[in-house]
Structures are given as structure tokens and as C-alpha cells.
Amino acid sequence: MAMSRPFSLLIKPASADCNLRCDYCFYLDRAELYPQSHTHRMSREVLERVVGSYLATEQPQYGFAWQGGEPTLMGLDFFKQVTSLQQLHGRRGAVVSNGLQTNGILISDELAQHLAHFNFLLGVSLDGPAEIHDLYRRTVGGTGSHGKVLSGIDRLKNNGVEFNILTLVSQANVRRGADIYRYLCGQGFRFHQYIECVEFADDGSLAPFAINGEEWGEFLCAIFDEWIKGDVRSVSVRHFDNVLNKLVDGVNTVCKMGDCCDQYFVVEHNGDVYPCDFYVQSKLKLGNILDTTWEELLRSAVYRNFAVEKSAYCAECSACEFLNLCVGDCTKNRPAKDATRLSVLCSGWKKFYGHTLERFEGLARQVVNERHATIGRNEPCFCGSGKKFKRCHGRSRSPG
Questions:
Q1: Catalytic: which of 179, 225, 231, 277?
Q2: Alpha helices of the chain — where are they, by DSSP H?
Q3: d(Cα 49, Cα 290) in Å, to the nearest integer?
Q4: Catalytic annotation present for 277
Q5: 309 φ, ψ to 5°?
Q6: Which one is predicted more confidently, 2 or 311?
Q7: What pLDDT is stored for residue 397 in this prediction?
Q8: CATH homologous superfamily of domain 8-169+250-309?
Q9: What mean pLDDT is predicted for residues 295-315?
């Protein structure tokens, strides 16, 4: 089945169900959409429909991201079904990737071995050392989860599972950017993702655990100043990688740096489909995969209208020197009750790019020069244009 554009899937096999009760979780209350049961688990019928129908579409790469809630509540047998169905329905030569976001607590050696065998890439939530992590990330019984997370990470390491560390930046750690970075590096973690915690109260104000723009900017600058000292080639900070990808190749590797929110679908445990992880709302339900095709979902008026809201910039954004990098920020960070729809993190992004952009541009030039040194003039250009290098990026030794 030909598709009008590529897309990936973010699947919630256990819905919002979780074995933690993190104070800042934005997804826990999504269980209210499905009050028929206290426990939510994806059936074999829904799983087979999701996997089979998606792999029947034409994609350059098939991306499955398993999230929650806590997806490991599904157990090892579920993920054995996942990989079995992918092998059954995948065409010869198809590239299939699996990502799994987890709190790490339920990782067993058996599950880790399976994930390693099928090259799953995991994101494990860890907000810093115990005194920080345990402030917001507690078990159902109210105890800290830090020690259990590190035990799960040890099992991932011992079984050769690739993983990134996901650090939510909240009021618990936003003033300790350098400390958090050094802690993660000290633990031997070399792949970091720092995610802003922005949630709004009913009156439109920031939630108590959420951060503001100035705090976000200070945090990112602190991380960058540690990273640039000597870790550029040894530590991957996802947002820094994203900036370099944009400067070097002109590509957006995350949806927030694009101008249209149409890169993936969220699939809930019962097959309901939504346009975005942050917008799983009844008014934005696009359909159900059991009775709706992917082509119909792509053409949905609700989906298209949602997608273009990303580029509805206010006047301040349109005039900003950093618009090509910030692109108005994620729409979830734009207060719904603010007529300007300016991201609450705007001042932070300006501070960060003002502090770092010149050095990022220098790094981008290094990347391009190193590529030029290894590519023959008559070889295909690295950018994928189909042109010879000498007629594309080989014309200039500057990024882009």
C-alpha cells in the first residue's frame, strides 16, 4: 500500500497503567478515557492488526516505539509476540526498529536478553542521584525507585541492551544542570536525553513541579558548558545532536524542530489512534485501527488540522533569529489560554542559542570538513540528494 508520506508508531500497550506514581506524570490521568477497566492490556487481535497493517505500508523504515504508562507491564511473552509478528509480516529487506521507554524496574534477565537479540533501543528514566530522582519518581507505595532503576540498568548492561538515559528536567533538578550531567557521566552513561517538564494547572499557570523559560535556558547552558569542555565526541546529548543535524544536513530529527506535527501516530491499548503523545484526548481521537486504514488516518481532517497548528507562529516567533532551530517549540509548551501562543520556554531557548550557536556552527564546520576529506568528488553526496559530491555539498566547505 503506497503512503502519501512516511510515519512511525508510538504504541501504548498497557495504556497509562504504571508501577510508579510520579508526581509529574502527564499520562496517568489518560486512564480516565478508558474507565471500563482498571487494567488495560493490548489484545493479540489489536497487536496483530497494528503490526500487520503498518508493515503492509510502504516506508523507508518501520519505527515502533513502545511506551506507556509502563510497557514492560505487558511481560516477556508480549514482546515475543511483537517480534514474531514483525518477522511474519515484514517484507524481505525491510528495516524495522523498536524503541522502548521504561522506568527500568521490571527488567529481568530474560526480557533483557530478548530485547538485546532483536536490537531494541531503550530509554530509561533517571532524573539524577537518589536524593533528586526519588523526589518525584516514587512507587505506588510511596517509596523511592532509584535503587530499583539502577538494578534494572545493570541487567540491561549485563545482557548487552543498548539504552539512553531520559532525564526529566523539573523543579527537582533544574538548578543542578552541571551536577546532573556529571552524575550521569560518572555512572558511565554516554547517551543523554534531557526533557523539559512543562505542565499547566487548570488556571493556565505552570504546575508546581514544572519549569519556566529562564530555568530551562540556564539548565541547557550548564549542560552545554560541561559537554563542550571535552565530551563532544564521547557523550551524546540528544538535543545537541539535533542541532548539529539541522546545521550540517538541514534535517529535523525530532518533531519539535519541524514545522508540521505529522510524523507519527499514537496507538492506545485498544487500537484507538491519536495524533500525538501529549494530545491523547477524546476530541482528537482519529479512529481505531481495527476499522480504519492508515491512509484514512493520514487524510483525516482532524489530523491535518492538528498538524498545521505547529506553524501558526506568533509575531515574535516569526521575527526571531532562532526560528529555524526552535520552530516555535512543541505546541504543548504554548499556553492554551495565552492568545499569543508563545512557548513558555521562549526566553530559555533564546538564552541557550545565544550562548551556544556560534560554537555549534564551528562544530558543524568540523563535521562537514571531515566528511569532505573522506568522500571522493565523483562519489554520491552524503546528503542523499542523488547528485555527485562535487555538484552538491562539495561545492562549499560550509554547513548546508
A1: 277
A2: 44-55, 76-89, 109-117, 130-136, 146-158, 177-186, 213-228, 238-249, 294-299, 301-308, 315-318, 323-326, 346-374
A3: 7
A4: yes
A5: -60, -25
A6: 311
A7: 45
A8: Aldolase class I (3.20.20.70)
A9: 93
